[in-house]
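Case study 2.
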Amino acid sequence: MQTGRQNDPAADIAGFLMQINAIKLNVENPFTWASGLLSPIYCDNRLMLSYPDIRERVAGEMAGIVRDNYGDAGMIAGVATGAVAIGIMVAERLGLPFVYVRSAPKGHGLGSMIEGRIVPGARTVVIEDLVSTGKSSLAAVRALKDAGLDVAGMVAIFSYGLDIAEKNFSEATCRLIPLSNYPALLKSLQEKGKLTDYQLNELNIWREDPQAWSERRREELKK
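Prediction:
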């Protein structure tokens, strides 16, 4: 699998994630998310950790984004659990300290939500594996800020590009830079002729209103 830097990293990364089934698309038989929402796309970016060439490419691209956009960063924070490993790889490349953020305080010991040495005021970039609505990602940002860290922004492997996520990040005044995203994925698949017109239309409709798409498909599947 060739993973050298190309002209469009977003399309390249989306393509790699599709190749290893980290990203799956199925319009006809949609996936059910933990929220109960039906979706034509499902992502498990942790699969890339089993592919050395892909994880190296992803870590290198993310480190480059941090360098180019947050050159004054003094710390990297990974969101548990999906972004812990890739966050460490990014921190290694940049020679920066690393911490990670749990989804909830630990239920024993010190009850910590953030693991690692916290330096109050440290300029911190958050590494995330996947952004959907942004709620869980921004909960990690709030935890870091509450601990006294200066959060510069977030870099994610993949974003669904939903309007609600853009709204949530804007309201939280947190800049999000995804390495790859849903529009880049669809563009890549379309250019390769891997989507029918029907599939492309349904995938675009889902992105515009996931809830409405889910409700319609649920009714259609009952028939």
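The helical segments are 9-19, 52-69, 84-94, 135-146, 163-171, 182-191, 197-208, 210-222.
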